[in-house]
């Protein structure tokens, strides 16, 4: 045990009066510097009357690998404006049990490491680290300007295994994640529009999404002036699953007596789903041979390229011509999976046509979803979805 009377800059207004090592930790007793003014933590005015004095145990940054505890005498002051308030301490937040230095240390490392690793690094309990990080994220988000979006992007991402999803909403102009909520139903996304408010909902001009009927219906109800824009990526992905995959399986079954050809068709799934420009040069002869030998696969493969052209038109007139042409080719093909897909696509024509006026897509949010997956893997998952959603919004605050 050592007695000192040191005034140190990192504990402004206090003097270290005693230092002792006990039970694998360093304990430091502080006492008020006589010349330090008494300042109200509420209004910041100087006070001259003390209501009572107590001692608070505060955690400080580790020292040489050992935890550090401070015994800090804190006074409750009688303020003429605020009433009874605790005095202000520059290096300690109100009601806090850790110093600002330790909280900043935790905040910096929580941006780079999982919470469990930060707990070992700082020597703090998991719940303490999470509480510090949550407060930091809330301060960071509250400092952002009030969003005034006019174009939105909505998409879902996997939250947990077992088909549990969450929905993210992005401001298409600033690339700021405005809201994240669990679920992908109308009821799940309704809190976003309630948070946005009637006035800002009326300012929304366009919303990009996949062909999710729940999203579509809720947007039309909440945002009367918004046009729904369907994303090409999701439509083509759906085409690959429901048309190309189905025709490939049907053709493989038809070739059950020709085992070599059946094997080639069965193993060609990823080759057929690739865009032509992404086919490796060494695989191109194999693809050409496969398509030349199978008329049905050739038809649906080329029809995918024609489908993409619907998103590349620059005016409504040429779009309508392309739309009618594509459906005429579907009717002439005689391929049942292709016809079924076309029948499902017809009711969504307005959202596809809207792409002419609003060249939007969900690609921005797809990239963000990939980073969300990395955050989730790095943390080995999150127990608290609300905390995870705070992390996502803070990670994507938008362009300055």
From TrEMBL:
Residue stretches making up the Transposase IS204/IS1001/IS1096/IS1165 DDE domain: 152-392
InterPro entries xref list: Transpos_ISL3 (IPR047951), Transposase_DDE (IPR002560), Transposase_HTH (IPR032877), Transposase_Znf (IPR029261)
Domain Transposase IS204/IS1001/IS1096/IS1165 zinc-finger as annotated: residue spans: 37-82
Superkingdom of origin: Bacteria
Transposase IS204/IS1001/IS1096/IS1165 helix-turn-helix domain segment(s): 87-132
NCBIfam families, A to Z: transpos_ISL3 (NF033550)
Name used for this protein in its record: ISL3 family transposase
Organism: Massilia norwichensis
């Amino acid at each position: 045990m050592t007695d000192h009377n040191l005034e140190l800059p990192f504990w402004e207004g206090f003097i270290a009066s005693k230092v002792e090592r006990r039970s694998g930790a360093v304990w430091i007793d502080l006492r008020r510097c006589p010349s330090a003014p008494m300042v109200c933590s509420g209004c910041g005015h100087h006070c001259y009357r003390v209501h009572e004095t107590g001692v608070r145990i505060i955690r400080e940054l580790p020292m040489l690998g050992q935890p550090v505890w401070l015994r800090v005498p804190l006074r409750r002051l009688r303020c003429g404006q605020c009433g009874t308030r605790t005095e202000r301490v520059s290096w300690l937040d109100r009601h806090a049990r850790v110093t600002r230095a330790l909280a900043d240390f935790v905040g910096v490392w929580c941006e780079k490491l999982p919470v469990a690793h930060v707990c070992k690094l700082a020597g703090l309990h998991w719940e303490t680290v999470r509480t510090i990080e949550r407060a930091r994220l809330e301060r960071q988000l509250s400092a952002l300007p009030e969003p005034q979006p006019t174009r939105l992007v909505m998409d879902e991402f996997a939250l947990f295994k077992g088909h549990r999803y969450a929905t993210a909403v992005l401001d298409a102009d600033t690339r700021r994640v405005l809201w994240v909520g669990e679920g992908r139903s109308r009821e799940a996304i309704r809190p976003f529009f309630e948070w946005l408010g009637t006035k800002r909902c009326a300012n929304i001009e366009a919303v990009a999404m996949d062909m999710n009927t729940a999203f579509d219906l809720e947007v039309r109800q909440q945002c009367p002036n918004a046009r729904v824009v369907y994303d090409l990526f999701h439509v083509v992905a759906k085409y690959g699953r429901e048309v190309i995959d189905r025709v490939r399986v049907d053709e493989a079954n038809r070739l059950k007596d020709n085992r070599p050809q059946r094997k080639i068709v069965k193993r060609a799934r990823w080759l057929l789903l690739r865009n032509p420009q992404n086919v490796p040069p060494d695989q191109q002869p194999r693809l050409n041979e496969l398509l030349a030998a199978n008329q049905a696969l050739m038809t649906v493969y080329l029809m995918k390229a024609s489908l993409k052209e619907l998103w590349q038109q620059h005016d409504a007139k040429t779009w309508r011509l392309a739309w009618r042409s594509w459906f005429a080719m579907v009717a002439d093909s005689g391929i049942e999976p292709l016809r079924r897909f076309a029948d499902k696509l017809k009711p969504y024509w307005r959202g596809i046509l809207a792409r002419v006026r609003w060249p939007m897509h969900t690609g921005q949010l797809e990239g963000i979803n990939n980073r969300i997956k990395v955050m989730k893997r790095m943390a080995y998952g999150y127990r608290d979805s609300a905390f995870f959603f705070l992390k996502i919004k803070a990670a994507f605050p938008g362009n300055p």
